[in-house]
Amino acid sequence: MPESSRGPRFVAVGGRRQPFLRRGAVAPRRKKPGRAIRISLVALVLAVAAVGLARFFGGSLFSLQRIQVSGNSRARTEEILRAVEPWRGTNLVALDLSGIAHAVGVQPWVERVTLSKRLPDGLAIRVTERKAVALFREGSRLWWLSREGRTIALYDPRADSAEYVLVSGDRRALPEAAGLLEDLRSMPADYFSALSEISALPDGGFGIMDSVFRRPVRVLRRDAPAKIRALLEARGFIESRGWEARAIDLRFSDRIVLVGAYGAGNSL
Questions:
Q1: 3-state secondary structure of 49
Q2: Which of 26, 161, 195, 224 could form a disulfide with 219 if both were Cys (CB 3.0 to 4.6 A apart)?
Q3: What is the pLDDT of residues 202-213, one digit of tens each?
Q4: Domain regions of the chain by residue span
Q5: CA-based nearest residue to 216, from 185, 259, 175
Q6: How far apart (Å, rounded) are the C-alpha atoms in residues 197 and 226?
């Protein structure tokens, strides 16, 4: 058969066009197996390292054995160690120090505690102690009294031979009594060193005993230092008049009252 004048014809084999002849078609890429293998190897190495570190830090090398206590003079070291004993042998790396801080902090003389881990097996405990400023008399017992007016522990004369002001009265008045004692520290040193007792009075205020006036001086905390200074200035005048009193009341706003058989009715 003669060829057509229109040119040769092309016939697709099988009746369909081959995919590579389609416009815009891209042959799919095959994933390289090396990337997945590398990721698996890295994950395996990290897992092995994590297990190794866990065994290393969790081993007996890091168990708490050495405990060092410092900063204490009244709080007994053996009592602090006894409080920490339940944690001995535990893993120091994973140890939560809050429980130890509480156990040491409830000791009577401990005001503040600082804890530091000393790897591989040590713990340092530094204690800041409460300061006793007076003695509180309650019946036949004596207590150390803190500057906040809190009882610390029963008085032990073997622990301290220094002299302290004696505080007595209702426990509810102890913070005010301790505050009054701190206020009186602004007085001249010879007067403050002469103080011997502060007692809470049932009708309000406090009674002060000292070796200067040798009789109760009744005051209110809010103006006690100023009133005592005025009394010290009037001391010569009172003695020159020969006025004797069982007590001196400074709780009034504008006068000094001498109370007693030989001073009744006299006021300045």
A1: helix
A2: 224
A3: 999 999 999 999
A4: 60-129, 132-259
A5: 259
A6: 19
Spans of the chain below 70 pLDDT: 1-33, 44, 47-59, 261-268
Question: 132-259: which CATH topology?
Answer: Rossmann fold (3.40.50)
> CB–CB of 201/169 below 8 Å?
yes
For 185, how many CA atoms within 13 A lie in the half-sphere containing its CB? 10
The first and second tokens of residue 154, run together, are 């029963």
Residue 138 is predicted with a pLDDT of: 96
166 in Cβ contact with 134 (< 8 Å): yes
In tens, the pLDDT along 111-139 reads 999 999 999 999 999 999 999 999 999 99
3-state DSSP assignment of residue 227: helix
Q: Which two tokens stand for residue 20?
A: 């590579």
In words, the CATH class of domain 60-129 is: alpha beta
pTM of the model: 0.72
